[in-house]
Amino acid sequence: MEAEFTSLVSSKSEDKSEYRRVRRRVEDLPLHKDGETKKLAEQRIDLMKKIDDHLDKIEQLVVERSNTENSAFIAEQQRRLNAGVEVADFESILANVKLGLPYPDVASEQIREQFTRLQLEAQRKLDVAKRRENWLRFEDEYHALMRRGNLREAAQRLVEKRDDFTEIETLNADFRKKCLSLLEDKTAELVRGKQWARTREMLKTVRADKYVKTLLDDHQLRKIEDMEYKVDVHEDKYLYAQVENRKTRTIATIQTYLTDAPLKTMKAPVKKYLDYLEKMDGKIELEIEGTVLWGANCWPNHKNLVKINLDGSEWFEVEATSNQNDSSVIGTNTCVRKLSDNINVNVTIKITNGTFLFNINVTIKITNGTFVFNNREHGQGTFEGKVSDLLGGGKTIELDKFGNKVILKIKEDSLPKEPTLPEWRE
Length: 426
Prior knowledge:
Layout: H1 2-10, H2 16-27, H3 35-83, H4 87-98, H5 109-147, H6 151-160, H7 168-192, H8 196-208, H9 210-215, H10 218-244, H11 251-260, H12 267-281, E1 284-293, E2 302-310, E3 313-322, E4 327-337, E5 342-351, E6 377-386, E7 395-398, E8 405-410
């Protein structure tokens, strides 16, 4: 029996069942009372003790090896924990840790404490990584909102998450720094597009937003209010420029300024100009100045009767002396018309005195009665158009003889005086 035990030990066998088998055989040996048998009994007891001691030694080796593996497991997870960065790293470590130690039943107190600390550290780092991941995601969302100009939504997110992240004050400061400049850029863009109402609504909405008001101070909020006023200035200037510019000045643009201009700082001169246009659009007692331009072939130094009818009624009837390439002012007359009215003007010039030389032979036979020699004409002409055609340099009416012409023009001082539109001012 002892030889079998010695053989197992020599072979470094750790099969405890073999040792127990040998021990059971030793236990089963018969007991004897003689002296020689007593010696054998002591040997049997001694062998059993040796077997038990060796079993204890094997058990101790197994425990030591198990704890070595336990320590190696902890060391590997700790290494991974120290190197971990992402949430997935720590989730993988925790998944391994939750499976427990390789040999939990034989783990020493020290190993158990190390394992507990590992678990706590892994969970803490996972929590930190998740917070960091959430923070980075939130930070990206915030910057995306700011890039798109969604200031109210960005402010709302900052206020609602202020207790979730210790780093949020950096974004609060960023919002305070960028909010006004982003508003100024957007305002300039909308003003260039003449989107006045939309610009004002945007500024007013941002200024009144409860989340924005939480982040901005009173000074910054007043600056937004100043932007609203500047938009009013831009629109008022633009609408006034439409009135000031002759190319765009109409009753419609004037009415638009008087109705829609936000400040109406130029209301008085614009209203005055509207009154002027209304007078110009109505009936005016106009003073018309007439001039005859004598042609190169007219009869010189003759008296003429210049007759001008307006819309079939006698208007001018003036004597004038004709001289070649000269002119005669035939005075002025009035008419009450709108500048937009259509008119029909007929001009006749007849010579009333002088001698006419004819290089022809004429035989006149008078049988009875009185013979009357007709006046010689200096021409006729007509004009159909509008009263406004007589503005400025007037209207030149070509006559049908000798190159004679008649100019009719409205005297400017008979028109309503055009008021001056000053430069825009606050």
